Every structure is written in structure tokens, then in C-alpha cells.
Amino acid sequence: ISEVITNMAISYPIHFVANYTIIPAYATEIYNAGYDFESFTIINLQLGLWFTVISFVRLYLLRRLYAHYGPRETALSLMKRGIRRIRNA
Questions:
Q1: Which one of 18, 45, 55, 83 is at 20 to 30 Å from 10 when CA atoms are compared?
Q2: Which residues lie closer than 8 Å to 69 by C-beta, 6 or more apart?
Q3: Comparing C-alpha atoms, which of 12, 78, 69 is closest to residue 86?
Q4: Model-level pTM?
Q5: What crossing angle do the helices spanning 75-88 and 37-69 adopt, rounded to 10°?
């Protein structure tokens, strides 16, 4: 359950930032596509691919983190561990 809660907690900020970086890059193309179904479909597939890759990488890294530290760790304990590591470096 800790992994699921952590995944939900970090996915929103990651995708929030992704929305503000990826979608503006396609704004002109979306505007120019107008009602052209083929162009609009290609743009939507590209956007979907971006968000799929982001989700895949996020989930892969999170699973590796939990596999390394164990399922009993919580998001809070992992953050505390990271802060301690940064302070001691």
C-alpha cells in the first residue's frame, strides 16, 4: 500500500510539470491542425506517447526504490533517509 500511495503522491506533481512543458510545445500544431482529423490524431498519439514514457519511467524507478529498500518503507521514511544522506554528503 505504501508504494501505491507514494506513486499517487508523486505522479500528480510530475504530470503537472509535464503538462506545462510538453503541451505548450504542441500548442501551435494543435491550433494549426484545426479540424483536420489526421493531424489531430498524430498530435494526440505523440502526446500520449510522452505521458506513457513519463509514467513508465516514474513507476520503474519507484519499483526499483522499493525493491532496494524493502516494502516496509514508507514515502516519508525514504524522504528522511534522502535528507540525511544529503546532509552527510
A1: 45
A2: 78, 81
A3: 78
A4: 0.76
A5: 70
C-beta separation of 58 from 11 below 8 A: yes
Do residues 39 and 15 make contact, with C-beta atoms less than 8 angstroms apart? no
CA distance 61 to 35: 39
Distances (CA, A) of 80 to 15, 27, 45: 24, 40, 39
Q: How far is CA 62 from CA 3, 4, 40, 52, 85, in A?
A: 8, 10, 33, 15, 18
Q: How confident is the model at residue 9 (pLDDT cuts 50, 70, 90)?
A: confident
3-state helix, strand, coil in the chain (%, to 5): 90, 0, 10
List the chain domain ranges.
2-88
